[in-house]
Amino acid sequence: MYQPASADLQKPHDRDEVYLIARGNAFFFNGTDRYEVQVGSFIFVAAGQLHHFEDFSSDFASWVFFYGPIGGEGGAM
After folding, report:
1. How many other CB atoms sit within 10 Å of the CB of residue 53?
2. pTM for this structure?
3. 55 phi, psi to nearest 5 deg
4. What is the pLDDT of residue 76?
5. What are the domain boundaries of the chain?
6. N-to-C CA span, the chain
7. Burial profile 11-36: b = 16 or more Cβ within 10 angstroms, e = fewer
């Protein structure tokens, strides 16, 4: 369970990952675009991709799952 406190300071990861928003709401920045997310939103992030949550509610929480090989399934790292 991922629950950023006051800021989301994530750096790109070396494996693919997915987020499933469990509580609250936020904006998700994927390196180029910003999307509103809420309970039930599902987000895929490729290995090496810049990303973070912004303007999240105080109760914001997300399941995060890392999977696959280092460099991601697309091998783009």
Report:
1. 22
2. 0.89
3. 45, 45
4. 52
5. 16-61
6. 25
7. eebebbbebebbebbbebbeeeeeee
